[in-house]
Amino acid sequence: MTSVQETAAQEFLSGMRIAASGVTVVTANGEGATVSAMNSVSSDPPSLLVCLYKGTRTESAIDRKRGFCVNILGESHSAIARVFAGMQQAEERFPKDQWISSPVTGSPLLKDAVASFDCEVDQRIDYATHTIFIGQVRHSQVRDHAPLIYSNCNFHGLGKLPANTT
Ligand SMILES: Cc1cc2nc3c(=O)[nH]c(=O)nc-3n(C[C@H](O)[C@H](O)[C@H](O)COP(=O)(O)O)c2cc1C
Q1: Does the beta carbon of 26 sit less than 6 angstroms from any atom of ligand 1?
Q2: Domains in the chain, ordered, with CATH?
Q3: What distance in Å separates the CA atoms of residue 123 and residue 134, rounded to the nearest whole number?
Q4: Could you tell me the pTM of the whole model?
Q5: 61-106 pLDDT tens trace
Q6: Which residue, judged by its Cα, is nearest atom 11 of ligand 1?
Q7: What is the maximal distance between C-alpha atoms in the chain?
């Protein structure tokens, strides 16, 4: 990388660090990783994408299984996010009272997640350092509680804005 490219990369990382995102744990075949690079693609068919570093255990597991489950974390799940990011150790990463198998792909599903989407891989895109998986959603489970947010290297709750009076 030239110094101009390095500066551009640093500026990009600074900007992305401040951007706020939801936090998910993407699971497949007994593996799991904390992932913020998740987005919807379409509702026809219901589909979403996740971006995973090449060479992570979860990326390999998705390739083997051709399926994965996206678990959107709630405000009370920051410890789970740390465990699946490798920032915190846990005796058991998938305790049986918190996790079950998803109905279609058999991937770990967090019972208390804000929402879980059980997906079959429809497309796999190889891009630089990452693999982008587009999954067709075969089963969704939704609970009504506040999501966990990640911004500026910290976890946050969803602070409410004052009511708009204009
Ligand atoms: C808030 C947060 C968001 C993350 N988002 C991603 C992501 O979108 N894609 C990714 O590949 N890794 C992401 N990571 C890093 C992975 O969680 C980390 O590399 C993990 O240890 C991979 O685990 P594995 O090798 O067991 O699959 C994120 C980490 C944190 C703390």
Answers
A1: no
A2: 23-150 (2.30.110.10)
A3: 5
A4: 0.95
A5: 999 999 999 999 999 999 999 999 999 999 999 999 999 999 999 9
A6: 52
A7: 53
